[in-house]
Every structure is written in C-alpha cells, then in structure tokens.
C-alpha cells in the first residue's frame, strides 16, 4: 500500500506539482470520478481552480474493468486495436459499448455541471489528474480532448501508474508527473488502503468547493 486513500494520494501529488502553485492561466481537470478527490487536494494545496474533463472507459464486454478504449465529448474515441484483435471483438459489440458509455457521459455532464459552463481551455495550461494510470486508455482521450480545445500546454499528473504506460504517454504531453511508476502495477486499487468508489455526490461537492481557485468557498 502506498496511499491510505485518494486524499492522501492527492497530497503526495500536490508536493510533486508544487512548482505550479499560483501559476496564472492554469487549471486542474480531474477525471471523474476517482480523479476528482485527488485533484481537489492539489487544488487546495496549490491555490488552483478545479474542474473536470469527462472521459469514459470502454470496457470489454463481460470484463468491464479491462479497457479496450475510451471516449470523451466531441465524439473523441480511442480504441486499442491490439485488444480488439486479441479478443476478436466484432464491430457490433464495440458499437454497443460506445453507445452505452456515451449515454453515461451525457448523464454525468448534466449531473456534474448543471448550469455551470464547461471551462474554456484555449491558451490555458491544463493539468489532467487521475487516481492512477493502468492501460492509459482514458488518459489518452483526455489528452486529445485538451489539445482539441486549444490548451497551451498539457500536463498529466497521477500519484502512481504502470511504468510502461507512463513511458508511452510522456511523449504525448508537455510533462508527465508520476511519483510512483511501478513495473508490476497489477490494479491501481491494490496500492490504496481505501479505494472505494467515488460517488456522484462527492464529485459535485468537490467541484462546488474548489472551482473558484483552490480555496473552499466557505473559507473565502
């Protein structure tokens, strides 16, 4: 175990990202749901605004925890062709998963944002945060989405990750921060004492607290 929970992981990640404290035109984007409590701790420590970048993993039918790709808004799709070939997944199977996850993406967009607009990323320094990197499928799509939105720079920041995935993603961004790259990751949750699922309600509460710039609204 490396971290007691996502809050603890976020505190470690904040230390690795301390050089960003108070940087202008910088925004932290947590990947819901598990990346949001990690990103919230970074926002609190560094005084940076927090928002989300909605991405959905495309799980293999019958083994949903194993990613065959990911989607984001704007019809961005990444498919791991190697996985598709190995498992001999047909187009109809893949399309069914995409359709289901698009519906969930839309549901979360409505639930998490409400009337609050999505942040304008054009010419901003974007930091993409998740609770760990396994296959990297969702993060790949998040990187594409940030670039498509006109980000000036993109940083990927995770508390831990598979070392080979970190090496694959590093050339795609301006900087990749991973305090604990692991050769034998297994599952991300294995390195947390508490890896219970983050709820919609927790995501909404954290966004309300830290959207404005790192400080809890009641502390302002």
Main-sheet strand order equals 2-1-6-7-9
In what range is the share of β-strand residues? 15-25%
CATH architecture: 3-Layer(aba) Sandwich
Termini, distance in Å?
35 Å
Number of helices: 7
Low-confidence stretches: 216-220
Q: Give me the secondary-structure category.
A: alpha/beta
Number of structurally distinct domains? 1
- The average pLDDT value, as a whole number, equals 92
Main beta sheet: 5 strands, parallel
Number of strands: 10
The helix/strand order is HEHEEEEHHEHEEHEEH
- Morphology: globular
Provide an overview of this structure.
The protein is α/β, with parallel strands linked by helices. The chain has seven helices and ten strands. The model is unreliable at 216-220 (pLDDT under 50).
Brief account:
The chain is built from seven helices and ten strands. It has 220 residues and is α/β, with parallel strands linked by helices.
Question: Could you give the topology of this structure?
Answer:
Layout: H1 6-16, E1 26-30, H2 35-46, E2 50-52, E3 55-60, E4 63-72, E5 76-79, H3 81-87, H4 91-113, E6 125-129, H5 137-148, E7 153-157, E8 160-162, H6 163-169, E9 175-177, E10 180-182, H7 200-210
Parallel strand pairs: 1-2, 1-6, 6-7, 7-9, 8-10
Antiparallel strand pairs: 3-4, 4-5
Helix pairs in contact: 1-2, 2-7, 4-7
Descriptive keywords:
globular; 3-stranded antiparallel beta sheet; 220 residues; alpha/beta; 21% strand; 7 helices; 5-stranded parallel beta sheet; Rossmann fold
